[in-house]
Design brief:
Layout lengths: L5 E4 L3 H12 L4 E5 L3 H11 L2 E2 L3 H6 L3 E4 L3 H13 L8 E4 L10 H5 L3 E7 L17 E5 L4 H11 L3 E4 L5 H12 L1 H16 L3 H19 L4 H4 L3 H4 L2 H10 L4 H21 L4 H13 L2
Helix pairs in contact: 8-9, 13-14
The structure holds NADP nicotinamide-adenine-dinucleotide phosphate.
Length: 291
């Protein structure tokens, strides 16, 4: 089966990364629409795509259009596209959001287009090298045949792995992704601040903590979270936890966050079999006493 030609509306972080990866996988990127043309020009030249003046102009040039816009823009944009006099019937449009199902694309479906969701369970930042994150990525797909098959083939061509998103509670699913993709960054920022306060220089703290995070990811590879667990909670080192909570007294919110995370970590430690329920309950008392 021939690869569909692709249009990208919104060449931001995800749109640019997917555009580059699809181009690299042999897909023709027929068109790009950027609401600020200067932001799409270089990418269009790099991928051999036409930079169109309107979103419907991009849709008209491709078999499959990717709406790579912010989640809240998908619905209004789909409404505009459905209202525009474009040669849409029979073509396909997907969005990239993990937090939404096909509902915001309903106007396009009613206009005779096939619609779907192509969600990379991955994180993309600005810049050309973020495309390196794509191989190995799992892609959640919500579409009917024949679009579903085309999207599965696309995920595989990108070096990824497709899975079925139909019937999945998107808010819950996406909250899970945010926990892993975004909040570790927030925790790292807090950790760096703490380490700097402890007397370690900022560049050393940054390198030390990122390297630590890499080690944590290595430990996780292929196993359950509880098997990768190290640290005072799973060791049962209550006094160490008390000392942590004591120095965090000057930042009650962070102290509270630490306490809540320690509480969940104790449950995980029991699950790992390295801590008994009685030991965990004893440490929980320590957590409460230290507040
Ligand atoms: N980034 C990720 O890690 C990631 C991962 C998986 C899925 N996603 C999904 O991918 C989608 C895009 O996210 P992103 O992170 O790539 O966002 P982003 O970097 O902010 O890019 C959004 C793009 O949409 C354009 N845009 C914004 N409002 C628009 C409008 N009203 N009309 C037309 N274009 C508009 C932006 O143009 P300007 O440059 O002019 O603002 C930009 O090109 C979202 O649905 C997100 O959930 C993202």
């Amino acid at each position: 089966m021939q690869n569909p030609t692709i249009a990208i509306i919104g060449p931001g972080r995800a749109g640019s990364a997917l555009g580059r990866a699809l181009h690299g996988a042999g897909y023709a990127i027929a068109a790009i629409f950027a609401r600020r043309p200067e932001r799409g020009q270089l990418l269009a030249a790099e991928l051999g795509a036409r930079l169109t003046r309107t979103p419907e102009g991009a849709l008209d040039l491709a078999d499959l259009t990717i709406l790579a816009v912010p989640d809240d823009v998908i619905g209004p944009l789909a409404g505009d596209l459905a209202g525009a006099q474009c040669a849409g019937a029979g073509r396909a449009v997907v969005h990239l959001s993990g937090a939404q199902d096909r509902t915001p694309l309903l106007p396009l479906q009613q206009a005779g287009l096939r619609t779907g969701v192509f969600h990379a369970v991955q994180t993309f930042k600005t810049g050309a090298d973020t495309v390196r994150n794509i191989p190995g990525t799992l892609f959640g797909i919500d579409a009917d045949e024949p679009l579903a098959g085309a999207l599965q083939a696309m995920a595989i061509a990108l070096g990824g792995e497709p899975f079925d998103l139909r019937g999945v509670d998107r808010a819950r699913y996406h909250a899970a992704a945010v926990f892993v993709a975004n909040y570790p960054i927030t925790l790292l920022a807090e950790a760096r601040r703490l380490m700097e306060q402890s007397g370690v220089s900022a560049p050393t703290a940054q390198r030390a903590l990122v390297q630590l995070l890499r080690g944590t990811l290595n430990n996780l590879n292929g196993g359950d979270p509880e098997d990768a667990l190290t640290g005072p909670a799973v060791r049962g080192d209550g006094r160490t936890i008390q000392r942590h909570l004591a120095v965090l007294r000057d930042d009650p919110e962070l102290q509270q966050l630490y306490r809540r995370l320690a509480d969940r970590t104790l449950a995980l430690a029991v699950k790992s079999g390295r801590l008994t329920q009685v030991q965990a309950d004893g440490l929980r008392t320590t957590l409460l006493e230290a507040i």
